[in-house]
Amino acid sequence: MATLRTFALFNTLTRSVDPVVPLVPGQISLYTCGPTVYNFAHIGNLKTFLFQDLLKRAFLAGGYLVRHCMNITDVEDKIIRDSQKDVDPAAGNAERHAAMKALTDRYTAAFLEDLAALRILPPTVTPRATEHIPQMIRLIQGLEAKGLAYVREGSVYYRISALPQYGCLARLDKEGMKLGASVDADEYEKDALQDFVLWKAAKPGEPWWESPWGPGRPGWHIECSAMGIELLGERIDIHSGGVDLIFPHHENEIAQSEGCLGHTWVNVWVHGEFLLVDGEKMSKKLGNFYTLRDLRAKGFDPLAFRFTIQSNHYRKVLNFSLDGLKAAENALKRIRLFRKRMEGDGGAHGQGAWKEAVEPLPRIAQAREAFWAALGDDLNTPEALAALFTLITDLNALDDRIALTREERNAALAFLDETDAVFACWPHEEEQADAAVEALIEARKAAKAAKNWAEADRIREQIKGMGIVLEDRKDGTVSWRRG
Ligand SMILES: [Zn+2]
Predict the structure, then answer these.
(1) CA 26 to chain CA mean position, Å
(2) Percentage helix, strand, coil for the chain under 3-state DSSP, each rounded to 5
(3) How many whole angstroms from its chain centre is CA 453?
(4) Cα 32 to ligand 1 centroid, rounded to whole Å
(5) Average pLDDT, the chain
């Protein structure tokens, strides 16, 4: 077996970059908080999923087995609000559940499409919260038995004053905080210490499940604790999410899981920073709100978006812009041209053989070490990419002068594949062309939807010019083939 690469990550729990010491040598258990499926994921959400994919791919390429659990939150405040607004007030529970499922199925499918378009590896398991209600109830009962939870009017709350380590992840200044009233909402600010809800008594107009406390539904935080313990176990190597989840969500997950288990649940907590768009917070009001679909409709390749996210360190706020996407496309083009050059035989290049100060094979080996050292140091992707791009510059220059041998070209190609196993967006000729066609088809669809017929026709001509035959089907979908 190849030797394992070593990794250190910034652990939010310790606020330092700690070496990752797996519970089982050579294996990593990874829990990542999945989407709340009531709408399309926006690019801020996708930034988190992309950083987690890179984290996972780095371990996989570094020789580890990774068991990855990502939940789908398919019952939660916003889901209920959006799914129930058009349901007949007289509807029964079954109808309310059906309306909720229709909404969450639709957006789960859209989310999985986004993951595939971004080459995000499917998790080992993708549990849905609504399929783990009994596990949640058992966990809450365990907390009740330990005096960590209490019932009030059919709802169950966590008694945070009973858990001394509450606040350890978010580093809450408990001395300076006032004790607030218990809170029913899933999301809240950290201005006061509040007993949070584990189980919510059913309100009129909401879907519900039977429970020992009467009809109700789980709070959001308990979902991840129950599914994480069920599917990854009582000890987990890495748990990850966006920085916005540190409080209250992850703090509450720790309180629930560790309150019940009586020991540390997760060794390393890893959080990715958010993104700005053109220097501002993304919002629908400002008109700078993007989903992956929006970017595709503008003709961008999802992999350019993947590269944009990954060329930024995950713990730095990313300032996203469409110009940045264009720069990413150019960087990927450099990789494509380099691959093409290395695949060729170098025929016309090369002035002859003389001894170079740096030989190609040792130069590639050096780049490989620099690449892995950077990734191992808290996933320093900008430095890892610098190692690759500097190598590309150097090998192009060497090839101009001495014409690389077949063996050297193959070594360069192998390193390109090795880095692609982590970054997963290096272009390959045919795929690149396919992606360009798909992007144009999306752009044409958007133009049609906006009744911009001239633009739709223009794009159709552009596609035709690429030698592609389009076929509009009756059901509104479009198929294409090379003519
Ligand atoms: Zn979670």
Answers:
(1) 23
(2) 50, 15, 35
(3) 36
(4) 7
(5) 92
What are the residues facing 74 on neighbouring strands?
none
- Phi and psi at 478, nearest 5°, equal -125, 135
In contact, 2 and 72? CB cutoff 8 Å? no
Q: How confident is the model at residue 2 (pLDDT cuts 50, 70, 90)?
A: low
Q: Specify the pLDDT at position 246.
A: 96
Neighbour-count burial of 390, counting CB atoms closer than 10 A to its CB (0-12 exposed, 13-18 middle, 19+ buried): middle
- For residue 150, count CB atoms less than 10 angstroms from its CB and return exposed for 0-12, middle for 13-18, buried for 19 or more: middle
Is residue 82 within 8 Å of 207, Cβ to Cβ?
A: no
Do residues 232 and 31 lie in contact, with contact meaning Cβ atoms separated by under 8 Å?
yes
In the numeric block, which tokens belong to residue 58?
Answer: 């780095």
What does each C-alpha distance from 1 to 4, 26, 61, 62, 64 come to in angstroms?
9, 11, 13, 11, 11
Q: Is there a contact between 100 and 79 (Cβ–Cβ < 8 Å)? A: yes
Longest dimension (CA), the chain: 86
275 C-alpha to center of ligand 1: Å? 20
DSSP 247: I
Pick from 443, 402, 184, 181: nearest CA to 301 = 443
- Name the residue among 56, 82, 60 with its Cα closest to residue 69: 56
d(CA 389, CA 370): 12
Confidence of residue 172 (pLDDT cuts 50, 70, 90): confident
Give residue-wise pLDDT tens across range 38-85.
999 999 999 999 999 999 999 999 999 999 999 999 999 999 999 999
Ligand 1 geometric centre to CA of 209 (Å): 21
How many Å lie between the centroid of ligand 1 and the Cα of residue 249?
Answer: 6
Ligand 1: distance of its center to the CA of 36 in Å?
10
* Ligand 1 ion: residues within 5 Å (CB): 33, 224
Integer angstrom CA distances of residue 472 from 392, 424, 460: 42, 32, 11
pLDDT digits (tens, 9 = 90+) for 217-259: 999 999 999 999 999 999 999 999 999 999 999 999 999 999 9
Report CA(145)–ligand 1 centroid distance (Å). 23
Tokens representing 378 are 């808290």
